[in-house]
Amino acid sequence: MTAFDVRPITEDERRSTVDVLRRSLHHNRITDDAWARTGKSWPAEHKFAAFDGGTPIGIVSSFDTGIAVPGGRAVPVAAVDGAGVRADRTRRGVLSALMAAQLADFAARGVPLAVLHASEPTIYGRFGYGSAALGKTVRVARPAGRLRERVPAGGEVRMLTPEEAVKELPALYERIGLHRPGMIGRPDLWWPVAHDRYAGPEAGHLVAVHSGPDGDDGFVVYATVSRRSFDSPDEGAVLDVHDMHAAGPAARAGLWRFLLSVDLVSGVRGRHRPVDEPLAVMLADHRHAATLAVEDDLWLRPVDVEAALGARAYRAAGPVVLAVADRTLPGNTGHYEVGPDGVRRTSAAADLALDVDTLGMLYLGQWSATALADAGRIEVRDEAAVARADELFTTVTAPWCGTHF
Ligand SMILES: CC(C)(COP(=O)(O)OP(=O)(O)OC[C@H]1O[C@@H](n2cnc3c(N)ncnc32)[C@H](O)[C@@H]1OP(=O)(O)O)[C@@H](O)C(=O)NCCC(=O)NCCS
């Protein structure tokens, strides 16, 4: 067992801890210039590090924001935006100790939910996070892929200069709003790293904005990966969509129409798109859109189970009693009656029993209770309750985060 202390970092330890994270993810140490541009994305606040002597060997980081939950409310959430342990100190309990400190802090501060994106799907279940929203990777072949005639149209697309993008995107994202369960607010500290992609010295991304009858209502940040060369003149470029948000179907269609109209392109690819984005059926021939992968996108942990369950809305159905087990935050362990009229702790017998990470999978509506019971993640004590839980928790719109952090 390695000896180490876990504590919040100080202002002076920001840069050494960002480097622990970067090295764990196989990036180079941050340069002076990059730190000058993006250092404000790494404040000392809400960071815990493990230290051996004075040297940081592991780090977890988060920022506070809001998340849309089923029913449309925005609920406070801690977004975990970094976890890394120095390569010579892994598998000795460092992350476990950091996660315990971080979760205790979220609980003490009354944050009801925590979310993250996982580098590997096997890491976070043990800490109570469940795979709560999926994303799909799609590729539309060009030039064959084009939209059907009756797909909503009418707006205009304009490309932004890097300076315009830095100025306009934060307000535009806010204007579009958190209209899907799983979408999170982007606080000021989130933007500097994003801006580097289109306005930094090595910027490889372009930005286009859609305007509809009420003004700007969508944007796309994309990279051009060119495979065209003197020896392969017929190879087109691939447009890689990094970040795309639209306030409604017309804006979404307008942005895709624009991407599919760019010359010398053999394909447009989007990663972590909403699983129910109807791109294939927007095309004249839906076979020109291929789903290349469906992967876990957002992981969610109820930190305060009663507050989390009480924050979202439920569809009309009879209530169910859930027995929730939580090893890391044992105060959550208990029985909860959940129904359209509200949520309360109860001593009634449970209909369904599940661990808190499975509750995270159920929470945004991505997975049905039936699927989770079939997978052995929900223990069914009353068979009829599964259908009621399906009805209560399922959402019409698939959850989706759409923000990299
Ligand atoms: C992922 C990482 C932070 C784990 O840190 P760690 O200090 O090794 O984790 P711990 O020793 O506390 O491990 C706790 C448990 O999780 C398991 N675990 C940890 N990392 C794992 C991984 N990558 N895959 C599978 N299991 C893992 C451990 O085996 C251990 O299991 P046990 O409780 O049954 O013994 C570390 O490996 C790392 O920095 N990886 C590279 C960067 C990265 O992927 N960061 C995550 C970004 S989302």
From TrEMBL:
Gene3D superfamilies associated with the record: 3.40.630.30, SCP2 sterol-binding domain
Domain N-acetyltransferase: 4-164
Active site: Y124, F405
GO MF annotations in UniProt: aminoglycoside N-acetyltransferase activity
Name under which the protein is recorded: GNAT family N-acetyltransferase
Subunit-structure text: Homohexamer; trimer of dimers.
Binding site for acetyl-CoA: A83, G84, V85, R91, R92, G93, V94, L95, S96, S119, E120
Classification via HAMAP family: Eis (MF_01812)
NCBIfam families per UniProt: PRK01346.1-4
SUPFAM superfamilies named among the record's database cross-references: Acyl-CoA N-acyltransferases (Nat), SCP-like
Organism: Amycolatopsis balhimycina DSM 5908
One Pfam family here: Acetyltransf_9
Family per similarity comment: Belongs to the acetyltransferase Eis family.
An individual GO BP term: aminoglycoside antibiotic catabolic process
Assigned keywords, A-Z: Acyltransferase, Transferase
InterPro entries: Acetyltransf_17 (IPR041380), Acetyltransferase_Eis (IPR051554), Acyl_CoA_acyltransferase (IPR016181), Eis_dom (IPR025559), GNAT_dom (IPR000182), NAcTrfase_Eis (IPR022902), SCP2_sterol-bd_dom_sf (IPR036527)
Domain of life of the organism encoding this protein: Bacteria
